[in-house]
């Protein structure tokens, strides 16, 4: 009886062989052979007029003591915020982008040590608005009120859903055309799509960083923003 049971178990094991765990499995054909594939990558993009502006202004002050540097910075920041609010007229929002307070050091010649000679306070103020025509006047107002630097000005899309979808579609068409051309050149026929991946992101129009002394009655043109996308397709070959 035990011999009969052992023989049955052995027969089951032989009928269902165990595969190696963790081994990657490729798509297989009906005959059990790995499927032949073509992998292509396509790209596409869409240009659109921006509808949103993001500006960041820096206020930097120096003083002998940390408290004095912070006090001067706070006074200037208050003036800059008031000027920006007055210029915006409710057509945007203002927020603090960052704040830091750190020592200023002086390196002694021929010595590895440094001495604290003062303190540096930096405050950044961020402005977001749909009123693109206010970008130049906002820069002028901020600098006139005491801002030392324009960290950046970006024109972008508040909602890029439609542009992103179109860019992905353009990239997919590009990938399809490449796959068809490759299949024709190889004398094979494309089958179904086995895998598809995509990436898309908005590319804002950045403006150059400017120092306060270099900005006078600032003219600003928003231009166009670009939404690029890439699509990777894996086709089976029939």
Please outline what is shown here:
With 238 residues, the protein is an alpha+beta fold. It has 4 helices and 9 strands, in the order αββαββαβαββββ.
The name of the CATH topology of the largest domain is Translation Initiation Factor IF3
How far from one another are the termini?
A: 52 Å
Second-tier CATH architecture of the largest domain: 2-Layer Sandwich
What is the string of SSEs from the N terminus onward? HEEHEEHEHEEEE
Q: How much of the polypeptide forms β-strand, as a percent range?
A: 35-45%
Structural class assignment? alpha+beta
Rg result: 31 Å
Number of domains: 2
Mean pLDDT: 83
Number of distinct beta strands:
9
Per DSSP, the total helix count is: 4
Q: CATH top level of the largest domain? A: Alpha Beta
Low-confidence blocks of residues: 1-26, 208-216
Shape: elongated
Biggest β-sheet description: 6 strands, antiparallel
Q: Mind telling me the CATH superfamily name of the largest domain?
A: Protein of unknown function (DUF541), domain 1
Classify the helix fraction into a percent range. Answer: 25-40%
């Amino acid at each position: 009886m035990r011999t009969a049971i052992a023989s049955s178990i052995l027969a089951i094991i032989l009928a269902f062989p165990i595969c190696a765990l963790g081994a990657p499995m490729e798509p297989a054909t009906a005959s059990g052979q790995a499927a032949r594939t073509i992998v292509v990558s396509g790209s596409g993009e869409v240009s659109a007029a921006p509808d949103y502006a993001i500006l960041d202004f820096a206020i930097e002050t120096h003083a002998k003591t940390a408290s004095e540097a912070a006090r001067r910075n706070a006074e200037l920041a208050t003036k800059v915020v008031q000027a920006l609010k007055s210029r915006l007229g409710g057509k945007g929002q203002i927020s603090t982008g960052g704040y830091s307070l750190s020592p200023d050091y002086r390196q002694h010649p021929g010595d590895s040590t440094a001495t604290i000679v003062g303190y540096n306070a930096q405050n950044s103020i961020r402005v977001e608005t749909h009123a693109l025509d206010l970008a130049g006047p906002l820069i002028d107002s901020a600098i006139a009120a005491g801002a030392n630097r324009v960290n950046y000005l970006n024109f972008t899309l508040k909602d890029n859903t439609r542009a992103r979808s179109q860019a992905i579609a353009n990239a997919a068409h590009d990938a399809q055309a490449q796959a068809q051309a490759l299949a024709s050149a190889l004398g094979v026929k494309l089958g179904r799509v086995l895998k598809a991946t995509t990436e898309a992101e908005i590319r804002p129009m950045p403006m150059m960083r400017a120092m306060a002394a270099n900005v006078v009655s600032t003219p600003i043109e928003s231009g166009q923003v670009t939404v690029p996308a890439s699509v990777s397709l894996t086709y089976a070959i029939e």
